[in-house]
Design goal:
With 101 residues, this protein is mainly alpha-helical. The protein has a single domain (2-100), classed as Glutaredoxin. The protein is 41% helix and 10% strand. It has four helices and four strands; from the N terminus they run H-E-H-E-H-E-E-H. The protein has helices spanning 2-11, 28-37, 56-60, 85-100; strands at residues 21-23, 44-46, 70-71, 77-78. The chain has a two-stranded parallel sheet with strand order 1-2. It has a two-stranded antiparallel sheet with strand order 3-4. A hairpin with a 5-residue loop joins strand 3 and strand 4 (77-78).
């Protein structure tokens, strides 16, 4: 999914849009070179153990990776209308167009 995320960052540059990543890797030292090699320029957080109630994935009900959440300008989580690369882009466009009104 990194190429998709990179393209979204480029497409929506200069607009009120950001990607925040959460990864479930347990070894940050092994992850750092991957983030660099994959050109991850957006903020990325390491999640706690999946079975921990404090982990982001537990709190947000993540059951599969990758999972996507769209959050509007008011901080409200919006549901994705459909899945897939083009659908994700379309959902983002919709949210951004509502903000412009």
């Amino acid at each position: 999914m990194y190429p998709v995320e990179r393209s979204l960052v480029q497409k929506f540059a200069g607009r009120p849009f950001a990607i925040v990543g959460v990864n479930s890797d347990t070894n940050m030292e092994r992850l750092k070179p991957v983030l660099k090699a994959e050109k991850i320029t957006w903020r990325s957080f390491q999640d706690g153990p999946d079975d921990s109630p404090e982990s982001i994935s537990s709190q947000w009900g993540v059951r599969a990776w990758p999972s996507f959440f769209l959050i509007d300008a008011t901080g409200t989580i919006q549901k994705l209308k459909s899945r897939g690369e083009s659908a994700l882009e379309k959902n983002i466009e919709e949210l951004l167009s509502k903000m412009a009104v």
